[in-house]
Every structure is written in structure tokens, then in C-alpha cells.
Amino acid sequence: MTESLAAFRLNERFQEARVQHRAALIGYLVAGDPDLHTTEMVIAAVAGAGLDVLELGIPFGDPLADGPTVAAAGQRALAAGTTLEAAFSLVERLQHVVPILLFTYFNPVYQYGVERFAKRAAGAGACGVIIPDITLEEIDEVRESLRAQRLPFPLLVSPTTAPGRARQIAAASAGFIYVVSRVGVTGEGTGPDLVWLREQVGRLRQVTDLPLAVGFGISTPEQVGEVATWTDGVIVGSGLVSSYAGRSGLDAARLAGSYVGSLATALTRGE
Fold it and tell me: Rounded to an integer, what distance in angstroms lies between the CA atom of residue 131 and that of residue 103?
């Protein structure tokens, strides 16, 4: 099977970053926080400031992997009436601004219908789907539905994942592998153990050719600069959400763009 447009757009961003001797910068924000108009403006701003790929979170009432910052953003989005269809519409309008991965939990996908969700995501122009609460033993239906729509499906490897299981996850993943930098939920708090994390990335490189992107707990230019020297992508979520929390419209877009710009300048490798 030839590479799909979605897979091409995602892989292209990693390749462009590699050619430029840097890691790809991947950001996360919640659709509809604090409203859909602001989300649209923020996405345009961060894309212009150097973001390579966006993870667009679909607000959900029971987000198991979300720390307090992202959970609060999800609650603001839900209070604003943001729906799954509204998130799909955002992707349709902004897919040409930056490649967008949908980040959601299994329950909304199941309620919507797995096959229907995959078709709608592909039709909207998403470049992949991340579902952090689905285990390797449970992915078959979702993976096959996404594969039928030729949508990348990155899986997560956590600090507690045994080496043998990490190899299985790497083999089942598509697009890239999301390397979770620490145990627990997302958040800015205490940074990850970068020595251990670098070793984990090294072990994964021995079993996969997929790009490796590191996330959870990375929020400062210093952390981004360190991780970028030995991985293919750096994922920043809570820091981006925090950068414009409590603001809306142009003010939120300006703050988010400035924050992403500060991270983008830290990405270049000394190669």
C-alpha cells in the first residue's frame, strides 16, 4: 500500500526537521478552550511561530492522562459547548495551516462508532489519531478502522513499559511513537528524568525506524533544547495550554505564538 496523504504530511514534518538538524515541535491544545474562535486563532498563531504538528484534544469529562492544567482546559471547552463534530470542523478548516492529529479517549470514539469516527477523521483531513487509554490488547478494532482510512495511529510507550512489550507497541504503532517521559499525568511540574529518558529512546531506536517523539512534563525552552538533541520530536502540552489560559481572541493567540516561538528557537541540534 502506498503512503497516504495523511501519513505523508506527518512524515514530511519529521523529515523537514531532520534536514534542518532539529527535532519536530509538536504542540497540544484543547479544541474549544475557551471557545472555538479562540482555538482557531491560537492554531494559526502557533503554526506561524514554528509549530510542526498539532495534537488537537477533544474535550472529555473523564480524561485519565490529563493533569490539572489540561483537565481544566477540557472543562472550559465542555462548558463552552464544544462537541466532537465541532472538533472535526476545526480540522476541516485548519488542516492546511498545520498537520493536525486528533487526541481523544476511547469512550468518545466508541460512542461515536469506531468505523464512523475513522471515516469522519479522515474526511476532515486529520493526519492521525492518538488514543492514550487504549491498551495493546484492545487496539485491533480501532487500528483496523484507522488503517482502512489510511490514518496513522501513534501508540504510547511509558516509563513502566517492559522492553519486550515496548517492541510490540513499536511494531503496532504507525506515524511515530509517543515516548511518555514520566509516570503519571501530563503537567508542567517537576521535569522528567532526562538521563533515563535518553536511554529509553536509545533502546527504542534499536527496534524501530519510526520517529520517536517525547512528551509529558516538557515545557521550558531548556527542556526542549535538551530533548531535541537526541529525539525526533518534542511534545509540549500543558505549557502551551497554560501560556494563554484565562485569555481569549487575539490576546490568547499572541501569548501562545510567543510561547511556541521561544520553544522553536531551542530546537536546533548542533550537528
Answer: 6
pLDDT tens sequence across 223-251: 999 999 999 999 999 999 999 999 999 99
Q: In whole angstroms, what is the distance from residue 3 CA to residue 7 CA?
A: 6
Backbone angles phi, psi at 100, to 5 degrees: -120, 125
In our burial notation (b when 16+ CB lie closer than 10 A, e otherwise), range 35-70 reads bbebbbbbbbbbbebbbbbbbbbbbbeebebbbebb
Q: Is the pLDDT of residue 182 over 80?
A: no
Flag whether the pTM goes above 0.85.
yes
pLDDT tens digits, residue range 134-164? Answer: 999 999 999 999 999 999 999 999 888 999 9
Using DSSP's 3-state secondary structure scheme, residue 56 falls into strand
Q: Catalytic residue positions?
A: 55, 66
Helices assigned H by DSSP within 125-162: 140-148
Report how far apart, in Å, the C-alpha atoms of 159 and of each of 25, 49, 129, 193, 231 are: 21, 31, 22, 10, 16
Say whether pLDDT at 210 is over 50.
yes
Higher pLDDT, 258 or 185: 258
Rounded-to-integer distance, Cα 193 and Cα 107, Å: 31
CA–CA gap between residue 185 and residue 264 (Å, rounded): 24
Cell representation of residue 250: 487575539
H or E element, residue 41: helix 36-49
Indicate the class that CATH gives domain 5-264.
alpha beta
